[in-house]
Design a protein that fits this description.
Oligomer: homotrimer
CATH superfamily of the largest domain in chain A: Hexapeptide repeat proteins
Radius of gyration of chain A: 26 Å
Strand order of the largest sheet of chain A: 8-11-14-17-20-25-28-31-34-37-39
Structural class of chain A: alpha/beta
Number of helices of chain A: 5
Number of domains of chain A: 3
Helix content of chain A: 10-25%
Largest sheet of chain A: 11 strands, parallel
Strand content of chain A: 25-35%
Distance between the termini of chain A: 80 Å
Largest interface: A-C, 68 and 73 residues
Chain lengths: 337, 337, 337
């Protein structure tokens, strides 16, 4: 696959500077660009690389233009242009309709003839697989679950009974949708299981990372809205509700009945307690702990980054004395009056 | 499935108030109850919903009774009654004995005729599957492993060789029992693997959530006692021992040789260091870090919840100065004498 | 399998004290040693057990020798000797070459005749499996992936297309290698996926724990060098690079483009932010948060261990006042002048 720079400018809407005939065959990293490649520079900090890269063209913002003597595409957000070009040059593989003779499909499952079902996939009774959907080896689709059009399940994904996935989703390997939520009540001398009667409903254009698990609702459903992007190793509890275009980075965990608004950004390793509500447009720094609902958009944090271990030991000793230290300040102030 | 309210009172031991002929067909959430449903109210905070719900009956505590003009079941713990009714109205599916022609079972494996073994399950030599056990597609039972009576393995669960599961367990998809513990010793210029010679032994009435992993012991076994409930994405290290009726919430991690007592409650994201011992009846708040053994029952915590990011930046700067701040307090006190 | 103590001394290079004819059949824990077993004592703290163990021989350091009246092997590092003996007495199972009739292997995949491929393994087009490799049931090897010699994949492991594993690796169940990295750019009203064009390249002698996921690079590859040991439930992001002989304990997570040096030790639950570089020989205590690059070898920490919950509540209140407390100290100091 190869394009001229002017073709790329036209397709992406970026402004062309320099020779439009420059031929681009691949994308590269700014530090490793070579002949035939296009790279992007995110901000002025990396401007110096413009001098040294062997890439044939660059994607930059307008303010970098004067430091650049290469053919260039200029845009407000070079990463967006870069991503579009990367996709043009590396189109997702076309789905070739196929049902592996080694797939095991219930007679009353409804598999669209344009779907691709690979070896050792198991599709149970009443399940439906939409047009253009692609299920890699080892996926299990339980009873009455529904997979939307053009949705891609990588290997060894499990979709629990009655759960539904919309269109154009990507689920990476090891994802588990629709395990029981964690619900038990203590009764005299042991726990009684609270039946988990809901399902999981996932919208369109959702991506879910490797080994993430999303539990079914206890009563009512767990809901992931359109455009949500969820990374690896994440847990969503029963009856969570994630608003559209929210992103959640690796190893974050939501307890049960959490409601997260639209366009939120959760960093990695964020923990949200039961029954919390977070409004739209909230940014949570990595390793945030959310124990109370958040009603105002904005950025929140609670993480302590590492210091040298000896220094940390001294700080930690003081943290434990903190209440006493505060009282000693108070005492000094009173004396001082 | 439908019951009268008086039948439900009798079965659950709750006190009936109002018409015992009220017909109940399903459970619902207090905010979504409709004709034919029963809902519960956990505490007085939600009493207002008693006026607005369309549910046919409610489960409440005695103190809410005067605010209620609907048919009601009264009990000390409405959730327990609710769970029992939910289970009555939504009984777990009966296990229909079956061996899928697409399962792969070693000749010398011992599968009880009342078990259900689905497609693409692999059962290796010497393994045994108890009466009424149910293995969903993609499960792998390695050599000499044993699955107890009425134990349910959801799809894609792996049980390592020689590991044993008791009766009435539920293991959700993606669970891995019996991977090697993390044991290496540095020898001159690289690590030598410490052979992991033990197994995992899991008692009865245990539930284990999606994508959780429990490692085999190094010498001796990793043990999970009866009635333990373990959530998703949890790691238990080699030679851990979890006492009966303890619950562990999502994404908690226990390092090696950790011993946790009976009836403990670990919140989500708790981390316990190597060789720690935690006594019975300990409650650990979410995101607790346990670096020393806990000898007294009670509740422990160490989590810092989020604040607005700018405020957190100022606090963090002060945390780093904490040792110096303490010294300045000391200096002021000395001057002050 | 049984050896005399003098045979074991010779094989491991330890010094023999006492009867070399002592027969050793198994390894045991110091607290459970019995006739025919050998145990090790790590340090003087456990010397007392030397009197009570029923083990036939012990492995100790020289300084413990005078407290010991049993046949003994003496070495600087008893654990290394112990691990070698444990491996001698419990050799890893030999790989018996076999291709299960229930494996599904593409015609143009290249499987070495000495490999073992079990039931429900799927090997796609162009993939290669090296000599002595062993793939347990349910593993999926996608297109053009390569598995090195004597590498062991436990059940239900997924290797993404074009990813490569070196020799003598061990991957535990549920591992996912080569899922897409988490890359999206916001464009007007939704996220655009950044194509993840790289692969994962894993060296030799690497071990990876259950349910860990290692994402493919966005541009260029994610790299794990020789001798790295990775525990369970870990996430490595796109373009991470882990230097040789580094160990990473359970539930740690590296965001994208993280570079970790050689011989580092990451405790459990460590979180490293995007684009961080950590030099060689760094030790990170459990639950460390790394938000800035680390240029000096040494130990770092930021974890707060639990205290009793009421006490923590008071400390937490003070943490939130910390900036104000510091200002009050400042005010006192000024008054004091």
């Amino acid at each position: 696959m190869r394009y001229t720079l002017s073709e790329l400018a036209e397709t992406t809407g970026a402004c062309l500077h320099g020779s439009g005939d420059t031929v681009i065959e691949k994308v590269a990293d700014i530090t490793s660009g070579e002949q035939g490649s296009i790279v992007f520079v995110l901000n002025k900090k990396y401007t110096k690389h413009l001098k040294t890269t062997d890439a044939s063209a660059v994607i930059i913002t307008e303010e970098m233009l004067q430091a650049c003597d290469k053919p260039a595409l200029v845009a407000d957000n070079p990463r967006v242009v870069f991503s579009k070009i990367a996709l043009l040059l590396n189109p997702l593989p076309t789905v070739e309709p196929w049902i592996s003779p080694h797939a095991v499909i219930a007679e009353d499952a409804d598999v669209d003839p344009s779907a691709r079902i690979e070896a050792c996939v198991v599709i149970q009774s009443g399940a439906s697989i939409g047009p253009g959907a692609w299920l890699s080896p080892g996926c299990v689709i339980e009873k009455n679950a529904a997979i939307g059009a053009n949705t891609r399940l990588f290997a060894n994904v499990t979709i629990g009974d009655n759960c539904t996935l919309g269109d154009n989703n990507i689920l990476h390997s090891g994802v588990v949708i629709g395990a029981d939520g964690f619900g038990f009540v203590w009764d005299q001398d042991s726990y009684v299981k609270v039946p988990q009667l809901g399902t999981v409903r996932i919208g369109n254009d959702v991506e879910i990372g490797a080994n993430t698990s999303i539990d079914r609702g206890a009563i009512g459903d767990t809901i992931v809205e359109d455009g949500v992007k969820i990374d690896n190793q994440i847990q969503l509890g029963h009856n969570d509700h994630v608003g559209e275009h929210t992103t959640i980075s690796g190893q974050s965990g939501l307890a049960g009945s959490v409601k997260i608004g639209k366009r939120c950004i959760l960093g990695g390793g964020v923990a949200v307690s039961d029954n919390i509500e977070i409004t739209d447009n909230v940014i949570l720094a990595g390793r945030s702990n959310v124990a109370n609902s958040i009603k105002e958009p904005g950025m929140y944090a609670s993480v302590i980054p590492v210091v040298e271990a000896g220094k940390w030991r001294r700080i930690l000793a003081r943290i434990k004395q903190l209440d006493e230290l505060a009282k000693r300040i108070k005492a000094l102030e009173l004396k001082d009056k």
